[in-house]
């Protein structure tokens, strides 16, 4: 007998709202490279407020179809916050119980929204970084296999394939309207590696000489959602195709926040990882090598009010984002 799928609510409208996000042009690039055009996908308009809705929807629907939640199993995964919101939101809509392991430096807005959907939260030591949350989820999955199905966005192929089949296809279609061609360069980051791997693979099929730059944050305090690759002990996501990366560009939290504030003055209210990507994109543009660059605005700035990054009445300090 085939195990029954979880009792889903009417999630069709919610799922239909994922993807098909606008491609916006960022005019700031003209200040450093008048001949370069910079475009970005505005992912905050997804129902869950971030780009993570895309891979989470694909991973969750495939898991339901495969009967992964038979016997009342819970979906388990680690997240810096955005994927956790997507899991909790879609789990509530599809009738799947969810447990998320999150590092303690995730913003309060993220934690509150995950809890609002009824998901179980396990908080790990922020000093230990995001990899501590990853290892905690791995340990729980091994210790309690009857309770959890570990989605493991770090190694789940449905993660990168969501961006290959959807995000990158949208980018190509939208850029064709704007410029008539595929981009010369892509700027992304590595959280799970899904976005960079999926988008870069698809764009390279159309533009073999595409330049791929990865934004690399400091180890501490870091930038929510991005991994500082290259340090001893760092967990490198299994699905990340590092051969796609042509250049790794360092970016600090201060630089990311400063760019977020500049973008807000242009009407784009985004989070620190988006600021990091645009900061790196402007560096690439300043080289004069690229006519068009594309990147991602991963989530909304509303998710970071508690970090004090938007308090323009006083100087922003890196320690405030940890409180």
UniProtKB/TrEMBL annotation:
It comes from Paraherbaspirillum soli. Pfam families: PALP. Keywords: Pyridoxal phosphate. The keyword Phosphoprotein does not apply. This is PLP-dependent cysteine synthase family protein. Residues 16-299 form the Tryptophan synthase beta chain-like PALP domain. Its cofactor is pyridoxal 5'-phosphate.
